[in-house]
Every structure is written in C-alpha cells, then in structure tokens.
Specification:
The protein has a five-stranded mixed beta sheet, with helices on both faces. It starts with 8 loop residues before the first helix and ends in a 5-residue tail after the last helix. The protein is α/β, with parallel strands linked by helices. It contains ten helices and twelve strands.
Length: about 290
C-alpha cells in the first residue's frame, strides 16, 4: 500500500455512486463524468489503498470485504465534507424550499430536515405530503423543488436514493392471510406501486383477493391490519409493534419485489437552498441502498 497519500474525495464519491447505482455507466452519467474517467478513479483508489474494492460479474458489481469498509468510511468522509461546506456557506443560503414526500416516508427525513433547519436558519422549508405519482407531477409542473417518492411504473425517472424490500404485513398471530379470498388493505388503484406489485403477483399465483380497505395513508390502513381484519404490504421501516411481517412461504403468499425510493428534482433553476437540502437528503437516505 502506498503511504502518506491523501485520498481524492471525487474518487470516493465515484465509488459510492457506483455502488448506489450498481453500474459504472449510470454512475458516470449521474456525476457528469465519462465512464472511463470513473473507472480510472476507481483503479487509482484501489492502488492507493492497496486492495481491490469491487468485483465485477456479468450481471452486477459487488463489494469486496475491503470495499464494504471503504464505502462506509467514504460516506462518512463525504458527509463531513458536505457539512463543513454547509457551515461555511450557511450565511448565503436562504429563500423558500418546497419539498414533497408521501406521508408514510416521514421516517426517512426527520434527521436531514432537522439538520437543514439547524444549518440554514434563513431558509424557509415547506413540506407537502401526497401520493408519489401526484408528487412527481407537482415537481414536473414546477410546484415543488424536490420530491422523495416510490418510483412508479407510470412515472419513472428521478435518481434512486435507496432500494427497499416489500413485505407482507398482518396482525401478530392474525389469520387474515388464511382466508380463501385474501382481504387486502391498500392504497387507491392506479396510484401506488405497492398495490400494483401485490395484485399482479397474487393474480399470477392464482390467489383470490379483494380490496377490503383503501386509503391514501398507511396510518389509516394499519388500523384494520393491526386487529387482524386484513393484510397489507409495506417496506420494513413502516411496520410498527402492532403489526408483524409475514413469511410468504408459510402464509401461501407470493414473494414481493424490491422498490426504489427516488428523488425527483424540478427542471427549473435550482436555488442554493434547494441544492443544500438535496445534498443532505441524499447523504442521509442513500446509505440504506441494498
């Protein structure tokens, strides 16, 4: 290993972005670099550290044990770098920032939003909660600066922040999953990737189902689920102590896919305050990518 060399933050950013995107090509596009430049940065970083960080198969990029450690440290170094820059430039950051999130994703955001308020007291944050598909349209229309959403089949795009598994959820010890016609608590039809994923796989498995409860918020759906009247699906961070994640094999339920949590950005001119919030959210949320 070569000693006494300062690691390049740009190379560390490239490493983290390649891991998050699972693709050198996609990472290069996100960073506005050429693919060869990103590959060169990664090779130089591996040379400096004296060990391979990535293994490339025909289907995906995987981290070596050293790579796992390097990415964790890189994220922290990038976070500290961003925080230092934020502190030094906070006096210049002000104005209105309009953020959209689904109500059920608020678990992701308390820390970055609190940090944003602490670092940029002159900025005025406005948060709007709606369904993901609606938020994407608000961003495209210029009514929101940023939106954190579940990536939808009918509204793709945005930049992936993290990937989450979908899980079946019922009451602890409940029997709703045993009914011949499965009672589901779901978001409205046409607005939710969770619902589309569940019903398509139930239909493919030949499992009968009915929409027993519908609501635009998981909080409303969780009440009938928690008392055993229906089952639903969610990402693990949404499941509280009143509900239980169901084993698909044991409950005769199909396996569910993973979903992408993405950030959509307004196509208009971005203010410094918007860019600062975007960076904070990306730094805080993306480390959960799997």
């Amino acid at each position: 290993m070569m000693r006494n060399q300062t690691l390049d933050l740009a190379a560390l950013q490239s490493l983290v972005t390649v891991v998050d995107c699972d693709s050198v090509t996609t990472a290069a596009a996100r960073l506005n670099y050429s693919q060869s430049a990103v590959s060169m940065q990664l090779r130089r970083l591996e040379t400096q550290l004296g060990t391979p960080l990535l293994t490339r198969t025909s289907r995906r990029i995987e981290l070596t044990p050293a790579g796992v450690e390097a990415v964790g440290t890189a994220r922290e170094m990038l976070r500290q770098n961003a925080e230092l820059q934020a502190k030094l430039s906070a006096r210049d950051v002000g104005g209105r920032v309009r953020l959209g999130i689904p109500a059920d994703f608020t678990t992701y955001l308390p820390r970055p939003l609190a940090r944003f308020a602490e670092l940029y007291p002159r900025a005025q944050l406005e948060v709007r909660t709606e369904l993901s598909a609606v938020l994407v349209e608000r961003v495209r229309a210029g009514e929101l600066d940023l939106a954190i959403v579940t990536r939808q089949t009918n509204s793709p795009g945005g930049s992936r922040l993290r990937r989450e598994p979908l899980v079946w959820v019922g009451a602890p010890g409940g029997a709703a999953h045993q009914y011949e016609t499965l009672p589901l608590a779901m978001y409205p039809k046409g607005y939710c990737e969770f619902r589309s994923a569940a019903t398509a796989r139930l239909d493919a498995a030949g499992r009968a189902w009915r929409a027993a409860y519908e609501s635009q918020t998981f909080a409303a759906l969780s009440s009938p689920v928690g008392v055993g009247l229906a089952i639903t699906l969610a990402i693990p961070s949404m499941v509280d102590k009143h509900m239980a994640i169901l084993d698909p094999a044991a409950c005769n339920l199909p396996e569910l896919p993973k979903v992408d949590i993405a950030v959509h950005r307004s196509p208009g001119r971005t203010s410094k305050a918007v860019a600062c919030l975007d960076e904070l959210i990306t730094t805080e949320v993306a480390p959960g990518t799997t």
